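Retro notes (design track)

What went well: tokenization of the new backbones is finally stable.
What didn't: we kept losing track of which sequence belonged to which structure.
Fix going forward: every design gets posted as structure first, then sequence, in one message. First example under the new rule, 294 residues:
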């Protein structure tokens, strides 16, 4: 909708914030589950739940038309990128706190800005470049390479950023010819089927009901979070919603404190704040530019 009413916009913002809360619960639960369940097994079960729910949702509405695609190979690449993002996210959360991980990953929109300029020949202003530099400074403040607390596992989130940026750019390209239902369907099943080949070698018996609950919660939070985000985009412009995605950092900090009693140190908090400010400012700049162009 080109000119959403204030009430619809407010509803969109509320839905976006709820989606960020779901994603924070997903990451916090993922960290807890990854300490006891093999990564491939956890990822496979998480995507299987999402694939089943997606299928039950889109098939009754679109039928076999959801299988139609002009670029089936790109669906495979997109699914592999998302699977890589999830795998590196699991590794990251196994070795680092949820809040710091979330902050680093939220540098992705800034990275996409630079990649879009390079690959799609879009103009990037000097202010945007400064915001990207600020986001990277925040990341370095959290990671602190060369410091006493540095661990090579802290580089995993940078892999998440790279894979996720590629996923978003490919999604932007595919959205021109592919339906959102087809993209969600293929991506979910690729994420579910590829890990299935390794399950016989990594499967372990889970006798703790709490772990099964955690695995189920991961699937529920991922599915509900993406659904809420779609509803938010239907009610408010993307540029309006983007600054509110950084509320995920606050939810992640809360989850890390409640479940793992983790409180970030002072430098980490500075880095997280710098990422949030630069990211939100970049989103606000997009909204401002959109208003000037209309």
């Amino acid at each position: 909708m080109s000119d959403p009413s204030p009430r619809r916009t407010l509803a969109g913002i509320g839905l976006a914030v709820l989606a960020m809360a779901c994603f924070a619960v997903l990451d916090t639960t993922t960290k807890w589950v990854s300490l006891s369940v093999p990564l491939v097994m956890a990822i496979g079960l998480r995507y299987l739940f999402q694939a089943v729910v997606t299928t039950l949702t889109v098939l009754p509405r679109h039928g076999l038309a959801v299988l139609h695609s002009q670029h089936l190979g790109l669906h495979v690449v997109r699914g592999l990128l998302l699977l890589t993002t999830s795998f590196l996210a699991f590794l990251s959360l196994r070795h680092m706190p949820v809040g710091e991980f979330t902050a680093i990953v939220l540098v992705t929109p800034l990275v996409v800005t630079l990649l879009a300029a390079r690959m799609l020949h879009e103009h990037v202003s000097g202010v945007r470049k400064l915001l990207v530099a600020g986001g990277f400074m925040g990341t370095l403040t959290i990671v602190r390479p060369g410091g006493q607390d540095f661990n090579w596992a802290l580089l995993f989130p940078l892999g998440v950023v790279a894979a996720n940026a590629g996923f978003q750019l490919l999604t932007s390209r595919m959205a021109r010819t592919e339906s959102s239902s087809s993209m969600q369907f293929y991506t979910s099943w690729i994420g579910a089927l590829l890990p299935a080949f390794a399950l016989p070698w990594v499967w372990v018996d889970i006798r703790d009901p709490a772990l099964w609950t955690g695995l189920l919660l991961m699937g529920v939070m991922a599915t509900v979070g993406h659904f809420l985000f779609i509803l938010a985009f239907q009610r408010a412009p993307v540029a309006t919603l983007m600054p509110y995605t950084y509320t995920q950092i606050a939810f992640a900090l809360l989850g890390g404190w409640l479940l793992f009693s983790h409180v970030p140190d002072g430098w980490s908090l500075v880095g997280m704040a710098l990422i949030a400010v630069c990211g939100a400012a970049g989103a606000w700049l997009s909204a401002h530019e959109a208003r000037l162009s209309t």
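Added context from the reviewer: The CA atoms of residues 160 and 286 lie 24 Å apart.
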